[in-house]
Amino acid sequence: LSYWYKPSNYEKQQAHIYVDVFKYSSVDESQIVWKEFAALSDLKSLMIKFMGEEKTNVALNSFMKRFGISGEGEMTSDPRLIPFVERLLSKFVGTVSARILIESVIKEKDIFINEMMDIIQESKEVISLNRELTKKSNELEKAKSELEYINQQLILHDQTKNEFLSTVSHELKSPLTSIRSLSEILSESDGLSEQEVSNFSGIINKESARITRLINQLLDLEKYDTGKETLILSVINLTEFFEDIQDALKAELKKKDIELMIHLDRKLNELIFDRDKLMQVFINLVGNSIKFSQNNTKVEIILSKIGEKINMEIKDMGHGIDPLYHDLIFDRFFQAKDQTILKPKGSGLGLAISKKIVELHKGKIYVKASSEKGTIFAIELPQIKNDER
Amino acid sequence: MSAKLLLVDDEPNILLSLDFLMRKNGFQVLLARNGTEAMQLLKEQTPDLVILDIMMPDVDGYQICQFIKGDGKLKSTKVIFLSAKSKESDIVKGLELGADAYMTKPFANKALLEKVKELIS
Question: Is the dihedral angle over the CA atoms A172, A173, A174, A177 positive or is it negative?
Answer without folding.
Answer: positive
